[in-house]
Design a protein that fits this description.
This protein is of the alpha/beta class. 52% of the residues lie in helices and 8% in strands. It has a 5-stranded mixed β-sheet, sandwiched between helices. It is flat.
């Protein structure tokens, strides 16, 4: 089940085989891609892997036949992560074994796990099972093939320039938007890639291509500018054009409401700080800027504690001691 805007966008776009196939052609070694018939790439249900309660079903599961047609189909496990998972290779290995357990016969299909990392920082977690072994590195190397090994095919969006992003149309644009969601410039990225959106409309259809826009509106703190809307809206048919305009209006109204609420909360906090500060200044004549800073940086809960201490402390320096205790 999709639980985040990132997850929804990823599955919306890459549940379409024609969007995933160009990405695979770009990421797989030529010796592999050459022998695969990616035009016959087909999705497989992830629910079939739910038997092991220790496992989390992969985001997407695909199968692709060899061009020769005489071997088992290759299974592609497609995952995306917005933050590093140190056990990602183990997750991939469990999924691989689960796929193999369902095979009838003595020959196993190749299972390849592709991981799209779209965090704010580059991926730093392990990408190979051998990195997880709690043993001296030379011992792991010495045993070599005696130990299970699996490597992720990692596409780290944080270090991939937009122009080098794999894929075409909506797939490439989705990866670009996922990359820029953490940078706060998702609208700039979309404006620089309007041709990709136009291609996405043709490949995905209006209703699914609109998901790219709703994602950008969801992750951005600011509405899209009129000049961008004038480039995007003519690419959509009237029904979907009205849908996205309505969604944009709702997001703008929600943003205004949230901004007003935050402004009210901020106003109450500032007023409370000034009131508490005045109380302390009236009680203590030697109230310095350092003492004032304790109050002017306090949140609501801390202000209540300061108010309660007003007549129990003997000198304002006790405020500084209390601040040090909180920081520890």
């Amino acid at each position: 089940m999709s639980t985040t805007p990132h997850d929804h966008l990823f599955k919306l776009v890459f549940s379409e085989p024609s969007e995933l196939a160009p990405v695979l052609r770009a990421l797989l070694p030529p010796s592999v891609a050459l022998h695969l018939d990616l035009a016959q790439l087909s999705p497989a249900p992830t629910e079939q892997l739910d038997g092991d309660l220790r496992m989390r079903a992969p985001d997407l599961l695909y199968r692709a036949p060899w061009r020769s047609g005489d071997r088992a189909e290759v299974v592609f496990v497609i995952e995306h992560q917005s933050s590093p998972d140190p056990l990602m290779p183990l997750r991939a290995l469990r999924t691989t074994v689960r796929v193999w357990e369902q095979v009838e016969g003595s020959r196993l299909p190749m299972v390849v796990t592709l991981l799209f990392a779209h965090g704010a920082k580059p991926w730093t977690a392990p990408t190979r099972v051998s990195e997880l072994y709690d043993a001296p590195p030379d011992a792991v190397e010495g045993l070599g093939g005696a130990l299970p090994e699996l490597s992720l095919v990692l596409q780290d969006l944080a270090i991939t320039p937009d122009e080098a992003m794999p894929g075409e149309g909506g797939g490439k644009l989705a990866l670009i938007l996922l990359r820029h969601a953490h940078k706060g410039n998702v609208w700039d990225a979309l404006e620089a890639n309007v041709p990709l959106f136009a291609e996405a409309v043709k490949r995905l259809g209006d209703s699914r291509a609109v998901g790219l826009l709703t994602y950008a509106m969801h992750v951005s703190d600011v509405p899209w500018e009129r000049r961008l809307a004038e480039k995007i809206l003519p690419l959509l048919k009237p029904p979907q054009r009205e849908v996205i305009v309505g969604y944009a209006d709702r997001r703008f109204e929600e943003g205004v409401a949230v901004g007003e609420q935050r402004g009210e909360q901020r106003g109450r906090l500032l007023e409370r700080r000034e009131n508490i500060l005045g109380m302390f200044q009236r009680r203590f004549k030697s109230f310095t800027s350092a003492h004032e800073a304790v109050i002017l940086n306090a949140d609501m809960d801390q202000l209540e504690q300061l108010k309660d201490s007003l007549f129990t402390i003997e000198h304002p320096d006790e405020l500084l001691n209390g601040q040090a205790d909180q920081e520890r």
